[in-house]
Amino acid sequence: VMPTGSGKSAIYQIAGALTPGPTVVVSPLIALQQDQIEAITEDEGLGGASPLNSSMGKQAREAALAAYAEGDLEFLLLAPEQFANEATMAALRAAPPTLLVVDEAHCISEWGHDFRPDYLRLGAVVEALGHPRVLALTATAAPPVRREIVDRLGLRDVRIVVRGFDRPNICLAVERFEEESEKRQALIERVVAAPKPGIVYAATRRRAEELAAALVERDLAALPYHAGMPIKARERTHDAFRANEAEVIVATTAFGMAIDKPNVRFVFHLDVSDAVDSYYQEIGRAGRDGDPAEAVLFFREQDLDLRRFFAASGRIDQEQMEGVADAVHEAAGPIAVEALAAGSELSENKVALALSRLEEVGAVELLPSGDVVPDGKAPAKLARAVAEATETQENLRRFARSRVEMIRGYADTTDCRREYLLTYFGEAFSPPCGRCDNCDRGSSVAEDADRYPYQLNGRVEHKLWGEGLVLRYEGENVVVLFESVGYRTLGLAIVAEEGLLAAAG
Fold it and tell me: From CA 111, how far away is CA 267, in angstroms rounded?
């Protein structure tokens, strides 16, 4: 776990070059793969590199796999859905990698901010390839995300290395508004005045396109960037931004991780992110060259309504969980997610979530292809497993709702914003930072940790919610991350009066 722009790609490139045998790199987006391949090919000592993705024709794919089989490639970069291709898995089994790299590893975690169901198959892929050494890399992984990465990848003899989250060259600020039109206009004026280049994040594709058009009307070279665009159009936009032909990219919050440019001077958010995890990943696009940059959230309280709606949606009740489990156990053989969704009233995403829960409790097994098979549980044991999986899913929904409240807390806090972000990820920090709006106006003060009853980053036990991790103090409140219900802000007076928390042994 290292901050954005601090050299995680170099870690796997050096490890791959020093490890005999090929290296397979799992990377979620084609643009990310291309950036990494360009960096590898610039250094002749690293060996050959090739992508394997959906934009390649049949001949190009066959050529890449042939070069891999012949030992001409040191690095093969692909998205996780490529493991569903039989020819790909056959080539990898015939010449197993000695190092499997999972880039953007937070994508495997439903506790993280950019969960992708295709990442769930990676644990099975690791086993199918003889469990090579695995290197998982991410810039944003709060404690529960780190635990899930380890569990889902089936890591053995694991070593977790956290090199800090702080990006001191990024100045942090929040601007609050009552009206959407006022907020939008203020952001436009700020973009016009700001040093370029920069990135603006919006919640939807439509808002990204509308804002890009509004910036063009102000004589700025601005382009939208989102997953709804054709691949070639996205590539042209990405190339234009990297070549300084575009001053501003307006990206959706769900797609902005593909943007990699060292001299981004600002990251502005028209819409609030769904969690602190997402927000920190997105502002990490700024200032990768180490020079000063700024990250500003343009915020309305009403903006959280959509985030709360999505956090509360996606519920899978016990009957639906039973239906998915029964369908897997009644199938004649391995069954695909698409087939399970077609035979039910659930979306493919909900089926994937149900399968994730059922795999955790040992009711089903996900194959490298993405298909699912039962584990052979007896009906009575299956019923208990389904009940357990349903409860786990409900805990995840509560966790998602708590994350929305934490991003609201970031917008509302009058304390040091850098401290708020870093303690969220379990990193201690003593304010003031001198690089956020609250510290600049003098509203942030250093807390006296000795006067508080629980140690920061210490573990505590709650009567109902079980174990938790003490993240931060906010005046007379304490923020604790509970494994069962997520982030909770508790009043210290009530905690003491009711005896709600005790230091965990």
Answer: 24
